[in-house]
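Hi X.,

You mentioned you wanted examples for the new student's onboarding notes, showing what a folding record looks like when two proteins sit in one file. Here is a clean example. The first protein comes first, with its sequence line followed by its structure tokens.
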Amino acid sequence: MAANIDELRKTVIESYKQGDWKNCVKACKELHKQNPDNVAITLKLADVFVKSKQKENAVKAYLIAAETYKKGGDFLKAIGVYKMILNFAPGLKEIEAKIAELCSGKDKEMKDSSLPEIPLLSELNERELVEVVNSLKHLTFSMGEIICRDGDEGTSIYVITAGAVKIFIEGVAGEKIEIAQLKEGDFFGEAGFFTDGKRRASVMAIDDTELLEMRKEDVEKISQDHPHVREVLAEFYKKRVLDKILAVSPLFGILTDSDRKSMLDSFKMKHYEEGTAVIREGEEGDALYIIKNGKASVITGEGGHKEIKLAELKEGDFFGEVSLLTGKKRTATVSASTPLEVMELSKSELKKCINKYPQVEETLKGYMKARMEDTISTIMALKDMDAKEGLV
């Protein structure tokens, strides 16, 4: 007579905690025998085989789970299982071949024999997708475990293959203020990844959770051989990160969500090394810029006077609007004070935006007036300081 399922589950849990792998394997195999289509049990059996150092049996069990996911058309979960195998059996050619076949969209077990629409990954061609998927790391977190904290370095994007997470910030009294919950198939971590910035919120697993981690250093290596990957990342940035910057921007935050999204394709990404000028005083103005990552210094040599630093700009700040609105030449030089990435909006595209959304022009004019007043005050204060120094 078959053992009671509840009793088997209890035996598996207790023997797992105690490290009694002999009894754990026995109970888990019987549980799997009674529930062969339950992929969670199949994965638990594979895990128990790993713990008991039965590598070959573990691979077989994981492959059964992967095939179940493929038949259901779940690309990410299948990839996640293959990554589990490679965690304890790195370099296993059979698994690497299965990943390549799955990425080709020709896997016979995969439902509809085509890849699903997955943000970012679906924009890559077959060779690029194989390279990126091979670079992914599989991570697991228990319910309640912190995945990353506010203030951590943000150098990875994560995609959830199982479970769910909560994004939160801490209040003044240490309370957790929830911002969002994400589920299977969702991404997080892209803001820090693209801006070399710090995490602006913490992430906690609210269920036993599995993630695929895309590390920036790995993607940059792949981009050297596959430049298109960088282009895809740029587009992904526009949709996932730039829109968030525009949403809080004093310039474009006044627009609706749909209006902002319709503008994203108008921006071009530009990179500048530290010390390089983005715009120069006296040049014709042909674009407006929003800082994506890094810092920039605003400097003028007004009236032949020595160079005066007017401002230091950071992520989300914009510049270049004065000459576009007045038709006059650039009134200051803006240079990268760190490695700098900016989003450029050409004069013609800005004009289209202003024609469509007149409120943007009003906001620009307000900022232009304030900045010009600040510039005059700074110059006059410095000249007055120089005059006083000459009396000492």
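Then the second protein repeats the pattern, sequence line and then tokens:
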Amino acid sequence: MLKDLSLLIELQNLDLEIGKNKKMKETLSSQIEEGHKKIAGLEEDLSHKQGMLKQTKKERREKERRIEELDLLLAKHEEEKYKVKSQEEFAALEKEISRAEKEKVETEDVLLELMEREEELAVSLPSLEMKVRQESKDIEKKEDILKADLKNVVHQSEELENKRKEVISQLNPVLSKQYKQLRENKDGLVVIPVKDGNCEGCNMKVSPSLIGSLRRGEEIIYCESCNRILYISQG
């Protein structure tokens, strides 16, 4: 086999491995990023619920204080009943008492809802905190493994790129340029075996004369149908 043809096949194999490594790097980086997003989401959910509990406690205390104020107001109005001197004053006082009693009932209803919400949050938060800690720990462990894998892939990629440079340096510059153009145009394999008389790139029949030239191994041969570089399959 021609030296340049052997170099082209080696170059293509290296490019295939480099392509696989690139995809692997993207996959590993994506998985690491997903882990970060998941932890951030869990922490955001925890922080949100902690904020809800804090706000609920604040609102509950405000309602309790308001109920105390209303109780004092109602007690004051009850005392005032014995001091009024006219029917009009008594009616006005009754109206104030009715308004205060209505507000108290409404405030007590809201307070009950706040107490129920506070209890639910207080009960659920410890288990959520534990879940966040555990999942964060699991994700961090997984991330350590992913980072180690990514480091290996990066190292392999550097080695492959160095080998590629070595091959390119030994390859005929004209062939190197042709290979690059074919790879861009064909978007895939450009150095293709001939098997059972067919080009495995386009599945078209290769003429006997070209196969004869391939067997002699005196020059680079191109498929008449797809222009890919051909070689005789040993399989």
